[in-house]
Amino acid sequence: MKQLAQFAMIRALFAMLTLVIVSLIVFTLMELVPGDCAERYLAFKNTQGSGISVQDIENERIRLGLDKPFAQRWVFWIVNAFQGEFGNSCILRVDIAQLLGTKFWLSLGVCLASLALAYTIAIPVGIISAASRSAMMNNSLKFISYLGLAMPNFLLALLIMLFSTVYFGDTLTGLFSKEYRDAPWSFDKFIDLLKHAWLPIFILGWSATAFALQTVRALMSDEIGKLYVTAAAARGVSGRKLLWRYPARHALGPIVNSLGFDLNRVFNELPIVALILTLTDAGALLIESLARSNDQQLAGAIIFLLTASIVALNFFTDLLLSVLDPRIRKSIIR
Amino acid sequence: MSATSEQTAETLRDQKAREAYFTASQRQLVWARFKKQRAAMTAATVLIVLIISGILAPFLSPYDPTIAGRNKDYMNGAPNVPMFCDKNGCSFRPFLHTIERERSIKTNFRWVETINEDKRRYVQFLVEGSEYKLFGFIPAKTHLFGISDGYIHLFGTDATGKDIFSRTLHAIWTSLQVGSIGVFIAFVLALIIGGVSGYYGGWIDSVLQMVTDAVRTVPAIPLFMAIAAFIPQEWSAEMRFFFISLILGLIGWPTLARRVRTHLLTERNQEYVLAAQLCGASSGHIIRRHLLPSFTSYIIVDLVISFPYMVLSETALSFIGLGLKDPVNSLGVMLQNVTSADVLLNYQWYFIPVIFFITLVMAFVFVGDGLRDAADPYSDASK
Lengths: 334, 383
Hints:
The complex is a heterodimer. Chain A is mainly α.
C-alpha cells in the first residue's frame, strides 16, 4: 500500500511537470500571435466609432498587465490556470472559465464515450481476429481498419447527415434540441442530449475503433506465439479461457497505457466533426477563436484544458496499471 | 544415369538458392520478403502510378488547373465520358458529342443543355495546349490528350469551370510535396533529438524524454490551428505552402524521435558494439558502420508509415480553412469543396478527388505495413 502511494505521488509530480512544460509551449505560442489583447480590444472599440490613440493602447496594456516581462506573465497565467481561471477572452470580453464551463465537459464526455465505444468493439474483435487463422477474416479486418484510418470522418458525417435529412427529415446537428438548449439540467435534457450525441460519438469512435483494432490485434498476435501460452495449452487450458487468462492479460497492459494518446487522437478530430455537425462544444469554439478572431487567450485556454485532460487520463491509467501489475510500481521506485 | 545427373542438378540449384539467401544483402532480403506479400505489392503499384501521375501532372492533365484554364461555358459541368459507339456507328478513336447550351425566354432563362448526337468531337492525343514546365524546368506545351473542338472534362468541372481531372492530378503532387517536406523536417529533428537522447542516455535522456512526452500530449490539430492562425492573410500561396509543411514537420517529430532513441538505447548495449569497441574502433566508426545500418530499414519503414499522417494532417488543416487555400490545388482543398449540401445533392462528381485521396492514404498504409513485415527478420520464423 505504501509502495502504491509512493508511486502515485511520483506519477502526480511527473504529470504536473508535463503540464508546466506544455503550458510554457502554449503560452509562448500565444505570445507569438501578432498583436496582443490590448490592441485587439481597442481595434474593436475603434470600429464602434470611439477614436483611440497609442496612449489608450498603452493604458489598456498596463490594465491587462501586458507590460510585465514574459516570465512573470507566464507564472501568473499558469498559477491561475491550475486554479481554473483563464482570464477574459480577448474578443468576446467574457470570463473564459464561464464561457467554456459545460461546453468543455460536454466535449470531454463525447470524446470519452467514443473512446469507450471504440474499445468495446476493438478488444473482443481484435482478440478473436488475432487468434483466428483465417486469412480471409484477417485481411478484411485489416482493410476495414485501414479504411477507418483513410476515410476522412467528416465525409462519414456528411453522408450520415445527408441520409438522415433525406429519409428522416432531421438534420441531426447540434447537441440539444431547441427547447433544451438554454434550459437547466434535468433528466429530460439528459435524454435529449443522448438522442443527439450518438452521432458525434459514433463518428469520432469510427476511426478510433479502426486504430484500436489494429493495436489490439498486433499486441495479441505478439503474445499468442509466446511460450507461456503454449505451456498453458499443453496443460490443457483451451478455448476462450486460454485466450483471456493468458495472452489477453498481457496484451491489454500497453493498451491501457496508451489510452491517453488515444484521447489525443480523438481530440484531433473533434474540431472537424464539430464544425460539420455544428456542435457548439469546445472544438468548434477553438476554430472560431482561431480562424475568425485570433483570440489567443481563449485558444490557449482550450489547448491547455485539452492537454490537461490527456495528462490526467495518463495519470489515472498509470495508477490503474500499477494496481493491476506490481512490476510497474517497482520500475519507477528503485 | 540420367536420374543421378538430374539429382545433382537439383542439389546444385538448391545449393545456389541457399547460397544466394545467405549471401544476400539486407536490401535483397527485404525485397524478397516484400515481393511475397500480394496486398503490399498491389498497394506499391498503385502508389507508384499515383506518384508518377503526380509528377507528370502538367503533361497528363489537359488543362491548366488554375483559373487560367477554366472553361467558362461549362461550370459545375458533369463529367464527359468518351465513347466509341453511338447510333451513327463506331469509331476506333473515342469521341464526345457536342453539347449546346442555351439560355433564353424559351428556357425560362436557365441554362439548358442539349446533346447533339450527330456531331462528334474526337479525342486527340499529344495535343498542343497551355504552356507548363515539366519537372519544374523543362518548358513544354504538349498534353497527353485533348479534344478537337472545345473542352473535355473527364471528371467534370467545378463552380468556376476548372477541370477537376487536372486539379486532382496537381493536387496529388502538392499533397505529396507537403508530406515529403513535413516528413523530412520531422525526420531530421527526430534523428538529432532521438539520437542525442539515445546515445548519451542518463540525465540528458530523461530531460529530452520529458520534453518529447510533453509535446506528444499536446493534441496536434488544435495546436496546428493555433499556429496556422498566425499566417497573415496576405501571404502568397507558396509562402503558405512552405509554412504548412514546416508546421507539420515541427509537430510530427516526437513519435519518430522516440523510436530512434529506443533503437539506439537497445543497440548500443549489444555485444557486437562491445566487440567493435574492444577491437579499438572509434565511436564515429561504430555509429556509421554498425549502429546506423542496424536500424536504417526501421527508419525507412517509419518514414513511410508517418507519411499518410502528414497528408491527413494537411487535409484536415486545409479542410478547416486554415491550411492551403483555393488557388493552390491540394487534396485538402479539393475535399473542402465537397462539404456543401448543394454538391452532395447535385454535383456528385466533386467526390472523385476523395476517392484518389483515400486510395493514396490506403496505398501508403499498406506499403508501410508490408515494408514493416518485410524488414522484420523474424517475420519468416513466426510462420
